[in-house]
UniProtKB/TrEMBL annotation:
Alphabetical list of Pfam families matching this protein: Ldl_recept_a, Trypsin
Residues of the Peptidase S1 domain: 193-232
InterPro entries: LDL_receptor-like_sf (IPR036055), LDLR_class-A_CS (IPR023415), LDrepeatLR_classA_rpt (IPR002172), Peptidase_S1_PA (IPR009003), Peptidase_S1_PA_chymotrypsin (IPR043504), Trypsin_dom (IPR001254)
Species this protein is from: Acyrthosiphon pisum (Pea aphid)
Protein's UniProt name: Peptidase S1 domain-containing protein
Length: 232
């Protein structure tokens, strides 16, 4: 399908599912219903990104840099994206319980994105001007944690008058975990065609543009492969 990933045959306001000729309405992205083969429309619904523009540019559902280590926290629902507003985490008086809740949510986010560790979490001014390519006015492009102390975190899209947002940094990516696939067993977990992010630790070594060996990422700087790849 590499020759079909940038075609313009989807009508305005629709997204291309990439591994098929399926086109879906933008509002179907992250609506809890799988519409694309490989579940491409239900991926990256909670993510880290440096800018709102880069989140919107993930449409159509194409290959992107899906593993940033730091940035603003974004929530996507029914085709609309928004930074995570920090209003529910701000207090005039230092509150240990709220600090713990903030650390817990940020740590959970890093682990959801398949990082071992939370490096930092901070509340910052939103100086990144939002766009409106996925619908809604800029003032509506924020998400709130409904209850920071709930056992299961839920989000609502809304306004953020304070323009204070959450920024996190994660570290130590997990290797050997299929980040973009649901847990399935046996042959039910194997599709005929792999999608971007299915095997994030798999690497290919080229020499003069020719594939010579495969390898596995074992850290951010080290690759494990066969000694025979480097003979001679």
């Amino acid at each position: 399908m590499s020759d079909e990933t940038t075609c313009g045959y989807c009508p305005a306001g629709y997204l291309h599912c990439i591994t098929s000729r399926t086109c879906i309405p933008a509002r179907s992205r992250c609506d809890g219903v799988v519409d694309c083969p490989g579940e491409a429309d239900e991926r990256n619904c909670l993510l880290i990104s440096s800018t709102g523009r880069s989140v919107d540019q993930m449409l159509p559902l194409a290959t992107v840099d899906a593993y940033p280590t730091e940035g603003f926290v974004f929530f996507v629902e029914q085709g609309m994206s928004g930074k995570l507003c920090a209003a529910n985490f701000q207090t005039d008086i230092p509150n240990e319980k709220m600090t713990v809740a903030l650390q817990t949510i940020a740590t959970s986010l890093c682990r959801t994105l398949n990082y071992h560790n939370l490096t930092s979490v901070e509340i910052v001014d939103d100086e990144d001007l939002p766009t409106s390519t996925s619908g809604g006015s800029p003032s509506e492009r924020y998400a709130h944690v409904v209850d920071p102390f709930a056992s299961e975190i839920t989000f609502n899209l809304g306004t953020c008058p304070s323009k204070k947002v959450l920024r996190v940094a994660c570290d130590d990516a997990v290797c050997g975990v299929q980040t973009n696939r649901r847990q399935k067993h046996g042959i039910d977990g194997l599709n005929k065609m792999a999608s971007h992010g299915d095997w994030p630790w798999h690497a290919i070594l080229y020499k003069s543009g020719t594939h010579v060996c495969d390898g596995s990422l074992i850290s951010s700087e080290w690759l494990l492969t066969s000694a025979s790849c480097f003979q001679g």
